[in-house]
Design brief:
The chain is of the alpha+beta class and 107 residues long. It contains three helices and five strands, in the order E-H-E-E-H-H-E-E. The chain has a single domain, classed as Alpha-Beta Plaits, CATH 3.30.70.100. Strands 1, 2, 3, 4 and 5 form a five-stranded antiparallel sheet that branches. 18% of the residues are buried.
């Protein structure tokens, strides 16, 4: 499984706009892609800004390309998402999951 991460930030006043966009637009879009395994939107306040970290789960890099296009390292940010953010990464990071606490039996 692959975990894809991406980061963006905004003002506290616009944080709800980005959260709503992610919930209303991004999540349904992701759910329609076969091989998408889940998503998290993490939030933290830091330095007067609100930072978001999106973590999406995929069965393979090939599946990520169905979302991102041919280069899985390029971030896919829709215009409504861009409008809610003051800064964001133009790239995404993709990590192979080598261990998780869900599938590893307890000792």
């Amino acid at each position: 499984m692959i975990a894809r991460t991406w980061r963006g930030s905004t003002t506290p006043a616009k944080a709800g706009d980005y959260s709503s966009h992610f919930t209303r637009e991004v999540v349904p879009s992701l759910k329609r892609i076969a091989g998408h395994k889940g998503a998290y939107l993490l939030r933290r306040e830091t330095g007067g800004k609100v930072e978001f970290l999106a973590v999406t789960l995929w069965d393979s890099i090939e599946t990520i390309r169905k979302f991102s296009g041919p280069d899985p390292e390029v971030a896919h940010i829709e215009p409504e998402g861009r409008a809610a953010l003051i800064e964001f990464d133009e790239f995404a990071r993709n990590y192979e999951i080598v261990c998780d606490t869900i599938s590893v039996p307890s000792a």
